[in-house]
Amino acid sequence: MEKRDYPLRKFEVNYNAQEIAERFKKLYTGLVYDAMESVGLKGRAMDSGVYPLVHTMKVAGHAFTMHGKATPNMDTYTHNIRLGLMKSMSDGCIQIRDTQGNLNCGQFGEISATAAAAVGCVGAVIDGSTRDSNILIDMDFPTFCRFRNPVEAYGRFMIVDYQIPIFVKGIDGMIVVNPGDYIFGDNDGVVVVPYERTIEILEMAEEWFAAEARSRKAMADGRDPFDVYDEYGRF
């Protein structure tokens, strides 16, 4: 058989991935979305229906994009495109999978998570389904999906490309997710920050988060809410 080489498509971010993830995880998605919308980045939240397996799970990291499709193809070499994508992952990345609306299998599971974690991936967002959900929960591997399905993907669905622009369902239509875009998710859903705006949006959200904390304290201390809003600008 002819040997096929799969391209290395590693995306290296220009910041400390662990530090930035820790800062995002102190926030919440609503605040990050508000920050984006305030600078004209509207509609960059996945639509209702994508949630974590457990409400306490969060994902925060740069996107490792994966494009899949329904196919009965069981060709070993094509199936092993995953070898190329595994070598392309970088520390702190989040797998985000475009499944093209496939409903007939679980497109992510225990083996996928174990392999991904071994090469530095710290979470997954599936615009589709997962299986092995109890094991993923026990692994504490943050996983977001639309639904759960016990059926194996092999012979039904396959990842056919990776680290390319993909499309996922958003609140105002489809969202383009590029490799490196920042993926942040909590129990309210998932937002997608353009890579080049990651630090800007993070710093803005942190400022607002601090202002909200001051507002809460002031109101708890008995101050008039209107005066508090005038002073801090967040309510």
Automatic annotation (TrEMBL):
Gene3D superfamilies documented for this protein: Ribonuclease E inhibitor RraA/RraA-like
Q: Which molecular-function annotations from GO does this UniProt entry contain?
A: 4-hydroxy-4-methyl-2-oxoglutarate aldolase activity; metal ion binding; methyltransferase activity; oxaloacetate decarboxylase activity
Residues noted as binding substrate in the record, renumbered to the chain: 131
Cofactor(s) needed, names only, are: Mg(2+); a divalent metal cation
Pfam families the UniProt entry points to: RraA-like
Positions bound to Mg(2+): 132
Keywords assigned: Magnesium, Metal-binding, Methyltransferase, Transferase
Q: Name any Gene Ontology BP term.
A: methylation
InterPro entries per record: RraA/RraA-like, RraA/RraA-like_sf
Q: Which PANTHER family match?
A: 4-HYDROXY-4-METHYL-2-OXOGLUTARATE ALDOLASE 3-RELATED
Report the protein name in the record.
Answer: Putative 4-hydroxy-4-methyl-2-oxoglutarate aldolase
Source species, please? Sphingobacterium zhuxiongii
Upper taxonomic classification of the species? Bacteria, Pseudomonadati, Bacteroidota, Sphingobacteriia, Sphingobacteriales
